[in-house]
């Protein structure tokens, strides 16, 4: 199991890489967003040099708000082009996998239209990712892309798409955390995992592990039970990074103690 964290896109990327290397993390979950980490301004060579110098790995993360399924075709095309540029940068930096988020804001459009328009975008982005040698992953997101039924329809339509399982998202807009169902049903396509805590409901709070209502001992047990031993990003967004370090230590302890029955 490898532990990483996401950069704050408002801060210098190289400084973030150096910080995470000092923290003893295994990789950076590099999100390409404004201001300092936007694809058009990212210092690609400096970033690559920093990754090589520190030995830090990288997982690619695209902005969650890119409107790849906008009802306005020109906006949709611009968003897809931005992610294609992101994918090229991830490839240049040595990443092996990158995620994409469904876009859900299409007022007056049906759930079926939203799903099918996202699927069309996933197919195009998957083709580009394959050309670049990247594994493209879908991050589960409520309300239309978070349940086993939702994701089954997507994966049936885009069979080579991987799963980026966000455990915090699996705890939102649902009566119980969906991690056990998602990890078990899609174990063969599980490529990456995000950990952050919340209290259910609709707020994706990105709290440190143990602060919300998610049973992390059980989550670790589930991941081990399905044979997952890959990258886990601590998506803990606290100004004081002591909370990130506490979550790192908690995850290491839980993983070391976790038993598979």
Describe the structure concisely for a colleague:
Helix content is 40%, strand content 16%. The protein is of the alpha/beta class and 261 residues long. It has one domain: Divalent-metal-dependent TIM barrel enzymes (TIM Barrel, Alpha-Beta Barrel).
What's the number of structural domains?
A: 1
Strand order of the largest sheet: 3-2-1-8-7-6-5-4
Number of helices: 8
Calculate the mean pLDDT score and round it: 97
How many strand segments? Answer: 8
Helices and strands in order:
Layout: E1 2-6, H1 13-22, E2 27-32, H2 44-54, E3 57-62, H3 73-92, E4 97-100, H4 111-131, E5 135-139, H5 148-157, E6 162-166, H6 179-185, E7 190-195, H7 216-225, E8 231-234, H8 242-257
Parallel strand pairs: 1-2, 1-8, 2-3, 4-5, 5-6, 6-7, 7-8
Helix pairs in contact: 1-2, 3-4
Attribute tags:
alpha/beta; TIM Barrel; 8-stranded parallel beta sheet; 8 helices
How would you explain this protein's 3D organization?
By secondary structure, the protein is α/β, with parallel strands linked by helices. It is built from eight helices and eight strands, in the order βαβαβαβαβαβαβαβα. The protein has helices at residues 13-22, 44-54, 73-92, 111-131, 148-157, 179-185, 216-225, 242-257, and strands at residues 2-6, 27-32, 57-62, 97-100, 135-139, 162-166, 190-195, 231-234. Helix 4 (111-131) links the parallel strand 4 (97-100) and strand 5. Helix 1 packs parallel to helix 2 (44-54) and helix 3 runs parallel beside helix 4 (111-131). The longest helix has 21 residues, at 111-131. The mean pLDDT is 97.
């Amino acid at each position: 199991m490898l532990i990483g964290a996401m950069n704050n896109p408002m801060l210098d990327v190289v400084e973030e890489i150096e910080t995470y290397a000092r923290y003893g993390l295994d990789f950076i979950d590099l999100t390409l967003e404004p201001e300092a980490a936007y694809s058009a301004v990212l210092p690609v060579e400096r970033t690559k040099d920093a990754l090589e110098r520190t030995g830090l790995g990288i997982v690619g993360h695209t902005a969650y708000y890119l409107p790849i399924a906008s009802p306005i075709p020109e906006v949709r095309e611009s968003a897809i082009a931005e992610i294609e540029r992101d994918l090229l940068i991830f490839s240049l930096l040595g990443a092996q996998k990158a995620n994409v988020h469904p876009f859900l804001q299409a007022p007056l459009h049906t759930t079926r239209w939203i799903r099918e328009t996202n699927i069309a975008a996933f197919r195009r982005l998957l083709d580009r990712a394959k050309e670049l040698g990247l594994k493209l992953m879908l991050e589960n997101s409520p309300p239309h892309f978070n349940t086993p039924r939702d994701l089954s329809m997507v994966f049936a339509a885009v069979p080579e798409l991987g799963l980026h399982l966000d455990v915090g998202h699996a705890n939102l807009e649902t009566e119980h955390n969906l991690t056990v169902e998602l990890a078990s049903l899609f174990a063969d396509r599980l490529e990456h995992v995000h950990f952050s805590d919340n209290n259910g409901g609709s707020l994706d709070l990105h709290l440190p592990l143990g602060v919300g209502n998610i049973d992390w001992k059980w989550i670790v047990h589930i991941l081990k039970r399905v044979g997952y031993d890959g990258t886990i990003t601590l998506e803990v967004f606290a100004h004081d990074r002591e909370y990130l370090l506490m979550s790192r230590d908690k995850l290491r302890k839980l993983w070391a103690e976790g038993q598979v029955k």
